[in-house]
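Q: what does this look like with magnesium ion bound?
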Amino acid sequence: MSNTDFALAVEDLTVSFDGFKAIDSLTLYIDRDELRVIIGPNGAGKTTLLDLICGKTKPSAGSIKFKNTELTKMAEYRRVRLGIGRKFQTPSIYENLSVFQNLEVSFPAGRSVMGALAFKCGDEVRERVRSVAADIHLGDRLDTEAGLLSHGQKQWLEIGMLLMQEPELLMLDEPIAGMSARERELTADLLQRICQGRSVIVIEHDMEFVKRIAHKVTVMHQGKILAEGPMEQVQADERVIDVYLGH
Ligand code: ADP
Ligand code: MG
């Protein structure tokens, strides 16, 4: 397999903050239709890696290719248009709008709230809203004001808002933080479904959850990759137990 066959190819990536290498010559490849989980101790550089891929942070050196296009000098909004979606830890939804409206305004045709609400809600948009709402377990909540949803449902809604843009790479930073056991189960189902037709990167700490969803696990430590492979292999790795799982 050549490097051009990967959805995402990160090579020799480095970022320094005042001389401290938060990401240190990191190389990582993600396949199409793959759900990759990144784990590792606090401060390992997991969130920084997502910041670099989405364009929030600029690297000091190295390359990030998405579908074989170099991203490192590309503006954040252009990466979004290219198909990269990123969910941050705190949900940013419009609390006063309904579930339907939140999804509707996220349809790529309308970029601002005002513009999208004025935008005539065509059949195509309605169709996509319904299908995404079903995916995120909110199919029967379309008229509910978003502010009234549970914490977990708000997280799903934000995932849905990203799905409206049909991203080919979706990145989620600790998506189940604060969720109930039932919501965690439903989120696992949701992630397994939405990685079909795209690549998904999830940062997570809950090992039971990781076991359920990961195709492959990457363990980060001090800005580098400590181990990578199937969950069983990574879990049995002495170095991983030493720096992370044993704690
Ligand atoms: P993780 O998500 O694995 O817990 P982070 O990526 O948030 O780790 O942080 C990795 C390291 O980089 C930490 O030591 C953090 O303090 C540092 N760091 C992250 N972002 C910045 C920044 N913008 N400026 C300075 N240091 C940063
Ligand atoms: Mg983090």
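The chain has a mean pLDDT of 92. Residues 181-194 form the longest helix (14 residues).
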